[in-house]
Amino acid sequence: MYLCSKFLTLSIQKNTQTWRLPAEWEPQWGVQLTWPHAQTDWAPMLSEITATYEEMAREISKREHLLIVAPEGKDLSHLNAQQLILNSNDTWARDHGFITLTDDKGHLRLLDFRFNGWGEKFPAELDNALNRQLYDSGALEGEYIDCLDFVLEGGSIESDGKGTVFTTTGCLTAPHRNEPMTQKEIEERLKHDLHAERILWIDHGQLTGDDTDGHIDTLVRICPDDTLLYIGCDDPDDEQYEELRLMEEQLKTFRTLEGKPYRLLKLPMPHPIYDGADRLPATYANFLIANGAVLCPTYAQPDLDVEALRRIGEAFPNREIIGIDCRPVIRQHGSLHCCTMQFPCGLRPE
């Protein structure tokens, strides 16, 4: 077993290995869902959120393997899925799931980073133990990599599959994650563990109500052909307007490894959705790319839902664009992508 913690005793060198973090649109073996249950924050609306998860499950299982983590007593045999009986604190597979690397021979490395409830905001002990349990069960193929000395959530990074990883300063430098590491030290750790050539940091754009401290998958998504889909705001009176304007300006300065500007496609901002007096972080950027399709959050706002799906279709012209009503999911401050974690196609290590 290779330990990422060995990094702490190594000098930083340019990666020469063939390992890389694939782009989400590359061929996938499957997707993980961690199922809602009565011991999670979903308890008051369990029937409603379960219906949404079942819709996600049906769409995913049409296209690839579906792996469901659920507690004992939860019978999901009516779904076309592999079910494992494991206990969880919550359901956000994007952030407690493995981050998977591939190499040029199709081998896989399953990176198990520490999940601590988005900076110790919520209990996470059971969630943090899921990856090891999944691996020991034989449910996942690949080489287990222990990275538990470093906090990293899957929703905080985006990869183009070619050596560039995007993230946000708001999240990765937030308190109670990897203090007292500096941004430079965090960057070098990411480059080492993810075998990235470079890290592009986004400094603006956190959504109101987002308790992840600014996950990139709520703001900017990487798409084929050097395209960035990003959330914009056209209402100067919106409290998020200035931050998103600054984010847009920063995206215009980014260049590919070849020195070319990115193709920028702006997604609309949903009309504000509230839980009592609290605004929820609704976003159209939180979509899941699957084999042959993109599953996209919608919010029962027909004009904006249609525009968002149309714009996502511009970035993925050869995939089916499928809307899923995520109003139940947003009530716990997440959306569709947050609920899922994809695994690329690959082989067992030799």
Task: Write structural notes for this entry.
The protein is of the alpha/beta class and 350 residues long. The protein has nine helices and 19 strands. The strands form six sheets. Strands 1-7-6-5 form a four-stranded mixed β-sheet, with helices on one face. It has a four-stranded mixed β-sheet with strand order 4-3-2-19. The chain has a three-stranded mixed β-sheet with strand order 8-9-10, with helices on both faces. Helix 1 links the parallel strand 2 and strand 3. The longest helix has 16 residues. The N terminus is likely disordered.
Present the secondary structure layout:
Blueprint: E1 2-3, E2 28-34, H1 46-61, E3 65-70, E4 82-85, H2 93-96, E5 99-102, E6 108-114, H3 117-120, H4 125-137, E7 143-151, E8 158-159, E9 164-168, H5 169-172, H6 183-194, E10 198-202, E11 220-223, E12 227-231, H7 241-253, E13 263-267, E14 274-275, E15 278-279, E16 288-290, E17 293-298, H8 302-315, E18 320-325, H9 327-330, E19 340-344
